[in-house]
Amino acid sequence: MNALTYALPGYLLGSLPFAVIVSKLFGLADPRSFGSKNPGATNVLRSGHKLAALLTLLGDAAKGWLAMWLAEQFGAGEAGIASAGLAAFLGHIFPVFLKFRGGKGVATALGVLAGFSGWLALVAAITWAVVAAVFRYSSLAALAAAAVAPFAAFILVGLGDAVAVAIICALLFWRHSENIRRLLAGTESRIGSKKKAPSSAA
């Protein structure tokens, strides 16, 4: 019951679609209407507005961390905190506010990793940055970080939390199934390439 108590608010917090919220605030097109149609920071970046993309990234990451921090402040145990983080991630990829059609969850997953351990988040972030810099594929970088994270979690935070991290990373691989197919086919877009975005939501 402790875990379930913190899962619902974590899910609702994770469901906040920062890509859509930030795009509306900046008068940009709905990120679900262009590019990959994914409501995430990478697709917001395709609008050409770097600040909006950065704020989306920070918002999506923060909600994962915040769900776990709030659970801890309200007295949740280890299972409750992990449940809040996992629920926030599920909220991002299946958001109730967007009819359960959300983003791929990379930024939110990073926030959840930070909720478990700052060092764990740093390992994942460095892995992403190195792979992205070398290969110029955001999706490949995310997959590499997701592959490394469960092992790093086992070392840094223990088996219990590592199981939650492994679930999140498995879901990340599933959400990137189309990217994996494009990577294998050699048709995946590289970082810096643009898919034309409308100038405004109108």
Overall helicity: 55-70%
Shape: globular
Count up the domains: 1
Strand content: under 5%
For the terminal residues, how far apart are their CA atoms?
45 Å
Please provide the count of β strands.
Answer: 0
SSE series: HHHHHHHHHH
What is the makeup of the main sheet? Answer: none
Oligomeric description of these chains: single chain
Class from helix and strand fractions: mainly alpha
Radius of gyration: 16 Å
Note poorly predicted spans: none
Q: Mean pLDDT score, rounded?
A: 93
How many separate helices?
Answer: 10
Q: Mind explaining what this structure looks like?
A:
By secondary structure, the protein is mainly α. It has one domain (2-185). The chain has ten helices and no strands. The protein has helices at 2-14, 18-25, 41-45, 50-73, 78-93, 106-116, 118-135, 138-156, 159-175, 177-185. Helix 4 packs antiparallel against helix 5 (78-93), helix 5 (78-93) packs parallel to helix 9 (159-175) and helix 6 packs antiparallel against helix 9. The chain is globular, with a radius of gyration of 16 Å. The model has no long low-confidence stretch (mean pLDDT 93).
Summarize it:
This protein is mostly helical and about 200 residues long. It has helices spanning about 1-15, 20-25, 40-45, 50-75, 80-95, 105-115, 120-135, 140-155, 160-175, 175-185.
What's the SSE blueprint?
Layout: H1 2-14, H2 18-25, H3 41-45, H4 50-73, H5 78-93, H6 106-116, H7 118-135, H8 138-156, H9 159-175, H10 177-185
Primary descriptors:
mainly alpha; 10 helices; 69% helix; 0% strand; globular
